[in-house]
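Tokens for Multifunctional fusion protein. Go.
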Amino acid sequence: MRHDGRQENQLREVTIETEVLKHAEGSVMITFGETKVLCAATVEESVPPFLRGSGKGWVTAEYSMLPRATNTRNRRESAKGKLTGRTMEIQRLIGRALRAVVDLDKLGEKSIIVDCDVIQADGGTRTASITGAFVALSIAIQKEMAKGTLLDNPIKEHLAAISVGILPTGEAVLDLDYEEDSAAAVDMNLVMTEAGEFVEIQGTGEEHTYTRVQLLEMLDLGDLGIRELIRLQKEALEALVFPAYETVSAKEIVIATNNPGKAKEFEAIFGAKGYTVKTLRDFPEIPEVAETGKTFAENAALKAETIAERLNCLVLADDSGLMVDALNGQPGVYSARFAGNDHNDAANNAKLLHELTGVPMEDRTAKFHCTLALAAPGKETLFVEGEVPGRILSIPRGDNGFGYDPLFYVEELEQSMAELTADEKNKISHRSVAIKRLSAVWEEWQEGK
Ligand SMILES: O=c1nc[nH]c2c1ncn2[C@H]1C[C@H](O)[C@@H](COP(=O)(O)OP(=O)(O)OP(=O)(O)O)O1
Ligand SMILES: [Mg+2]
């Protein structure tokens, strides 16, 4: 009988609470009896220098204990200015353990760092850390997969860790608490995989030795404990769904535009398809992307790809403009800054009228062009285009729309774009033509690589 009434092959009560932190990509509060460890996994889009350009990712861990995790206060290692040997040893062990079950090639050039912070210590902090860290890592990876930023699951199999030992009575026991651990004759930490293989065995006698028979007895107990821990890990992970991510990919779309006129049109068109539209006005912290490209496609890609990387999600961008035949296709990609001043519709329209002074109506043919770029991190960008023909009026007409709409006459409707209602414009505009083409190829693109 053990001091807390457990059987020799019985774990303490183990709980695994997932998603306990707002910011970390994966987080877990794990308890082994009175031992409590907070595990937080962070995904970073970079790797240590020795892996750069290799296509391989990295998984590592840090371990630390809060001052009052123990019955007397320990000075913080940050206050001491250096890590103790014990801390270094444990965090390396956690990192090694996790890397044993992750295919770093499949992870690609990303790093996952799992921070294990012991809130309360009552023996087995490293084994609880490894067991919890694996779950936090799995959550972070599942989210990457849900977002489409990881295509293939790099986790090869489950992994957990447990302590076993020999009490002074000679009895082999599973999952020692602090009281048992400090008196134990032999103390052993086992890190094992779901397949029953070992990653690490740390077994030491303390003023005692142990026999081969006792070693096998401890390994058997450990095996039992690991199986139970893996069952609990799976239970915790299976209970998780990622509804937020499903909504982001299925029902929400981010459009990399600052133009309120475009935003309204996208909202109307995608809203009718059941999407919520977010634009850069929802992310005021993101600086404007410089449109340094020479083509609509280059600029659309610049906007979509920069923002997709930044927000780590699917992003659509629009680069559009007016192409006037009598001006050899100008202002084209420079439409927004035709009059020099970016985004000044009145000045742009005035300059357009000035440039076309004396040009007769039959020679004032033009078209609106729109290139859409759909980008996701790690994916090749998809492009579609749309155009609508028209003529440039000599007097602005109508108050709807934006940009050059008051000067753009749509012959078949016998109205300027600015005289059309939003619905009417959205049926015929260059943007709506492009969006229709996008819907036709979107799914195929999303399923492909
Ligand atoms: O339906 C339209 N009706 C009237 N004018 C339009 C339209 N579509 C584009 N245009 C003009 C406005 C702007 O002068 C330029 C787009 O420049 P472009 O860089 O693509 O957009 P932008 O800088 O206003 O917003 P953003 O880059 O944040 O999406 O073409
Ligand atoms: Mg622009």
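The chain is about 35% helix and 25% strand.
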